[in-house]
Amino acid sequence: MSETAAIEFDCLGKVFGRGHKQVRAVHNVTLAIPPGLVYGFLGPNGAGKTTTIRMIMSLIRPTSGTVSVFGKDVLRRHDILKRVGSLVEDATFYTFLSGRKNLEVLARTGDEFNPARIADLLGRVGLADDADRKVKGYSTGMKQRLGLAAALLNDPDLVILDEPTNGLDPAGIQEMRHFIRSLAHTHGKTVFLSSHLLTEVEQVCDRVAIIDQGEIVREGVVSELLSSKLELRVEANPLDKAAELLQEHHAVTRNDTWLSLEAAREATPAIIKRLVDAGIAVYEVSIRRQTLEDYFLAATGNKDGHHD
Ligand SMILES: Nc1ncnc2c1ncn2[C@@H]1O[C@H](COP(=O)(O)OP(=O)(O)OP(=O)(O)O)[C@@H](O)[C@H]1O
Ligand SMILES: [Mg+2]
């Protein structure tokens, strides 16, 4: 890829603490995030998402490796972070000021101060009606929206969002997702967002990296990760005999009522024929598209994951 990556991690690692209290939060992460996409960083609680984001923002130092943003090492070329807007866990605001005032204060620490732009931003994040209330009285979702407005204040090329839909109600989540996609696809920004929600990544992101216990376990285009494998479920009798037969050509797993095998859709007729020819009664064959959740659970070995 000749285009400069929006973010590049090179053997990035972070260890907290010393001795036996040591926590390896991020380990040997090497990844290039191409510009102009919504890129998802998906992982369970404690996987290392926020730690990685803090290293992008230069809020903490890597123990090993480097992070570059638009080709510049963030530790050596701090000024590159002017092109980055971020919403990191627990954004803090002046609670005794209104949402609008908070943005004004933040804008004054930057290059320009444009009241019309602030009003426009407040409208875009759905805070127009509450802009002049004190932040003290904001709900979690309102603070999250204000955090997003703050992230966009300096019109960044790269927007980094740590769990952006945290605290939002279902309508707010839909709006936020739409908003995030438009940032990349209409306004040409790169969005890097972390999430522990599979559905979120499926609906919002173009590419995804799955992180577990500090390490990247999968990476790719969301639609390709989803469509590359199909699961075939076969209900037949006797099941043992069917399993034995199909094992010759496929990886088969089974429970009491059905067999599950990985196969392409085109293989289905041959599979049914083989069973029927062997005198096995076939009750049902269904195709299940693997979802990102299946990948996630397989990749992280997490057996008790939940649907949201
Ligand atoms: N300042 C710190 N000191 C010690 N350990 C830390 C510190 N920050 C994070 N950790 C540890 O590093 C690991 C990764 O934490 P991190 O906050 O990056 O996870 P996360 O993927 O953002 O999780 P969540 O989905 O819960 O936000 C965890 O084991 C956490 O306890
Ligand atoms: Mg986190």
Instruction: Give the biggest beta sheet.
Output: 6 strands, mixed
CATH architecture of the largest domain: 3-Layer(aba) Sandwich
Strand content bin: 25-35%
The CATH class label of the largest domain is Alpha Beta
Radius of gyration: 24 Å
Provide the helix percentage.
25-40%
Bound molecules: adenosine-5'-triphosphate, magnesium ion
Write out the CATH superfamily name of the largest domain. Answer: P-loop containing nucleotide triphosphate hydrolases
What order do the SSEs take from the amino end to the carboxyl end, as H and E? EEEHEEEHHHEHEHEEHEHEEHEH
Protein described:
With 308 residues, this protein is an alpha/beta fold. It folds into two domains: 7-225, 3-Layer(aba) Sandwich (Rossmann fold), CATH 3.40.50.300; 229-289, Alpha-Beta Plaits. It has ten helices and 14 strands. The protein has helices spanning 49-56, 99-109, 115-124, 140-152, 170-185, 198-204, 222-227, 239-246, 268-277, 292-300; strands at residues 7-16, 23-33, 38-42, 64-69, 72-73, 84-87, 158-162, 190-195, 207-212, 215-221, 230-237, 252-254, 259-262, 281-289. A six-stranded mixed beta sheet has the order 6-7-8-3-9-10, sandwiched between helices. Strands 2-1-4-5 form a four-stranded antiparallel beta sheet, with helices on one face. Strand 12 and strand 13 form a beta hairpin. The chain is elongated, with a radius of gyration of 24 Å. The protein starts with 6 loop residues before the first strand and ends in an 8-residue tail after the last helix. The structure holds adenosine-5'-triphosphate and magnesium ion.
